[in-house]
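LAB NOTEBOOK - FOLDING QUEUE
OPERATOR: T.R.
BATCH SIZE: 2
PURPOSE: Compare the predicted structure-token outputs for two unrelated chains run back to back under identical settings.
PRIORITY: normal
REVIEWER: second-year student, initials M.K.

ITEM 1
FIELD SEQUENCE / FIELD STRUCTURE:
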Amino acid sequence: MAFTAADVKNLREMTGVGMMDCKKALTASDGDVDKAIEYLREKGLAASAKKAGRIAAEGMAYAAVIDGMGVVVEVNAETDFVGKNEKFVDFVKGVAATVAANKPADLDALMACKYNGTDKTVLEQQQEMVLVIGENIKVRRFAFFADGVSVPYIHAGGKIGVLVNLEVSGGIDATEAGKDVAMQIAALNPRFWDKSQVTQDVLDEEKKIMMVQMANDPKMASKPEAVREKIVMGKLNKFYAENCLLQQEFVKDNTMTVEKYLAAAAKALGGTITFKDAVRFEKGEGIEKKQENFAAEIASMVKG
């Protein structure tokens, strides 16, 4: 029985198994989907199908410089315990190394890359990790900087991974300054890197909120609109200081902003340091979490 690419895709969605293994299963089963599923189960490949539907919001955010390239990745697991497992951590580091070696365009491209040091794809290696560890494991996202000087920082053993990218001149070592900035990003999670990135719609919304607040304040409501406008402009400077990295008060020295800290650090080293970009990954960020009743699941398995 012949099968199509759509059949392969359908089998992959049903089982969570890689495209190549699904194709092999359909070939061995003459295109019969039920037989192909049985084939995959016999091979142990479909064992991850049930796990693939479970919430994976733990795991690890990891940042590193590999062969001169800055890389940050997030790989999720179901429990914090697995997130600290040596095999899991090694897998995460291997994913980062694969990103550095291949510079994939997106997540699909990464999953199709050969996993670092093996003949398997990242997807196949991920599926193997599911079978070995017994939890749903998922490579969620990645980013890299191929140019400039990158400085990584990992907070709380992988709860947060930050990668800062700098432009450095004068042959100076900007690692310490970069780490200080990365720690600030990890701690305060600024909405913007610089006030120049704040869009007009954001400013308009902030101004609207501030004007309403003053209108509801008896002491402010009686003031002329021109005066209130001036007060709003002052409040916007506070907004920049709270939400924009370079305008934020430097945590280690509240007498200066982050921007001024970088300038001072560069001057002391005899060169220049310019902040270019950064990426902050917090594990499980934005993933809907729910409490899994594993005891009930195990009980149902025993009864079955």
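ITEM 2
FIELD SEQUENCE / FIELD STRUCTURE:
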Amino acid sequence: MAVLAVAALALTACGGGAEKTESPSASSSAPADGAGKPAAFPVTVAHKYGSTTIDKEPKTIVTLGLSDQDAVLALGVKPAGAVDWFKEKPYGKWPWAKDKWGSTQPEIVGERDEYNIEKIAALKPDLVIAQYSGMKKEQYDTLSKFTKVVAQPKEHPDYGAPWQLMTQQIGKALGKDAEAARLIADIDTRFKAVREKHPEFATKTLAVADSFEAGKYSAFTKTDPKAIFFSELGFKLKPEIDTLAKPGWNVAELSAEKLNVLDVDRLVWVTSSTEANDRIKAEPLYKKLKVNQEKRDLFVPYQDPDIGAAFSFNTVLSIPYAIDEIEPLLAAVK
């Protein structure tokens, strides 16, 4: 659980090379639920380090963004390699993706922004995708020597691009623009239905927070996937949290004396253990907050059930699960 918490907090913070021919020994991507109609290639995808032209439909794909595998799976392809987030292998227990992976086990090729280049090269990928990532230029250049690479979007800070844009980028790279657009539209419809069902959400301010050790607290800014998720449910975010974050960070670090910034209409603690919950509730300065006194705070686990993980991923696969799990909890708070 401690490792899980550290992994969660760690978030806060030109074309590729020639294509390779897949060898029989390489782990290859396979249709997850039936591939879509063949798309027209070449396609060119712009990103932080320029643009990448993909000449033909990629068959072997490696994802290096922490949640990129979800959009790839949703578009009918199983990545041959992926990174490990939460120290939970991506083909593990996540309920929103388990059926998509089936019995396939991708090669683990890194953690967060530390990639094993040798393992990636051994897979002989046609395409490397790194959307929800902090890929460095040096890493991009190294990978581009032997494969096509679509790095993170250039219009946003690392780990700050909205899920819609990252899904669009992935869909374009796979030649599945129309399918990606449909996925995005379906999720937008889900969010809209919640907002229409609960118009009161629009009148409430909400913050998402965590605490990984005594006396230290974290509040997530408007660019963090967790905050974005609740914003799309209709809640108003608190801009003061953004001003407290370090430049380039999507989390504001708070001392107990700064907990008053979390005195909002709805406070969602996403935590890794009951011990963390008890410690937060026992903090004398936290007890003084109205959000606590009036029981408008929610303590949501990352795992078991995987609610916090679902809105931390905040992808086309995880969002429906997250909505189904969190909506009744939010609606029950008066």
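REVIEWER COMMENT (ITEM 2): The longest strand covers residues 205-213.
FOLLOW-UP: none requested
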